[in-house]
Amino acid sequence: MFGRRKVAPLCAVLGVWALLTLYFFCQSGPLSTGHSLLKDDEPVVKVPFVNSPHIKLQDINNDFNVDEYKKVENDFDDHKVRHDEDMRELGKVVGDVKEDEVENDDQQRDRVMPAAVIVPIEDREPVVDLDKLAVISSPEEEQQKKELFEKYQFNGLLSDRIGYRRKIPDSRNAQCPHSFLSPLPRASIIVCYFNESPSVLIRMVNSILDRTPLDLIQEILLIDDGSEWPEASLQASDYQRQHPQWGMVKFLQTPSNLGLIRAKVFGARKARGEVLVFLDSHCEVNQEWLQPLLERIKEKRERVVCPIIDIIDLDTMKYVESPVCKGGLNWGLTFKVRSVGNLSFE
User: Fold this and answer.
1) Where exactly are the structural domains of the chain?
2) Which of 39, 67, 181, 243 sits most deeply, having the most CB atoms within 10 A of its CB?
3) Closest CA to 126 of 164, 160, 76, 97
4) Residue 224: CA atoms inside 13 Å, Cβ hemisphere, count?
5) Count H helices, E strands: the chain?
């Protein structure tokens, strides 16, 4: 057992030894730089904390190596250029969204969410009189209706007269819930189109933005699958420039006409959302359409879900409610839909 006089000098020696060991470890170890993943032959750049955004490089103390910082910055720029070139090989972005524009989720949400209130509630679902709009008053209008019907295979003239927004009946079953799990995953909504009517495409996107909680939308990708007629992309792009609430809409174009399935795969590879939602370009979504789909996927990630699909009459453009039904494939791999009749719902 040590006496008190011997213990005090020994404690002092041990304390000095511990301090020296800690000092040399901090000077030589990876914790002093924060760059433990760098290789031995790579330069370590010490970036000082700068509180003012207006400070100049020459005002920073001599510990900051400006040349090394610029080298790392240039290497990053070169990597970004190579990344952008790779993206251009897959397809080009058209419209107002440039290929080299990249926004993180917070920037995108800050820019889009306030813009959603620009459209007043009463303007999001204007009531339109389809019978009145469908009136043909001259031979010229009759010819125009015929030409547009042959072009789009539906009443394109009436669609143009309806405009870019309209009120549709809420077709949800009374037993549908109005509250959902939270939080739900965010979705990338992918819309592929080919030779689409501009008014139908724009009205479809507006229905998504007006009837969907924007915090559930990562992005809306409009994939032009090599259309022969550029009107839809041009008018939708011009509409985006005039309406800030379209900030989360991105225009993409396939390198050629890939076909529907390959175009969807093309869009899926571009998407950044947790869930991929595929919509046809000639549709309009209804109230609370997305939340039940995301809730089922949140419960089990392996699920592939499909909603009840209502009908838009190709001549009258009226929104027609579909009965509750079930769908499946027959032995010929043809998708069939059948009504469930009076089956009870759990």
Assistant:
1) 105-120+182-307
2) 243
3) 164
4) 28
5) 11, 9
The 10 Å CB-count burial string (b at 16+, else e) for 211-246 is bbebebbbbbbbbbbebeeeebbebbbebbeebebb
Pick from 248, 302, 210: nearest CA to 112: 248
Distances (CA, A) of 105 to 17, 113, 127, 272: 50, 12, 35, 10
- The whole-angstrom separation of Cα 282 and Cα 312 is 9
Shortest CA distance to 191 belongs to which of 118, 96, 112, 285? 285
CA 178, distance to chain mean position in Å, is 24
Burial code of 169-201, b = ≥16 C-beta within 10 A, e = fewer?
eeebeeeeeeebeeebebbbbbbbbbbbbbbbb
pTM for the model: 0.65
Q: Tens digits of per-residue pLDDT, 173-218?
A: 787 877 888 899 999 999 999 999 999 999 999 999 999 999 999 9
3-class DSSP state for residue 49?
Answer: coil
Who's near 219: CB < 8 A, 6+ residues apart?
108, 188, 189, 248, 249, 250, 271, 272, 273
7, 12, 13, 15: CA torsion to nearest 10? 120
Residue 224: which of 195, 189, 265, 187 has the closest Cα?
195
Pick the CATH number of 105-120+182-307 from 3.90.550.10, 3.30.70.2190, 3.10.129.10, 3.90.45.10: 3.90.550.10
pLDDT, tens digit, 9 for 90 and up, residues 300-313: 999 999 888 899 99
| Size of the chain, expressed as the number of residues it contains | 346
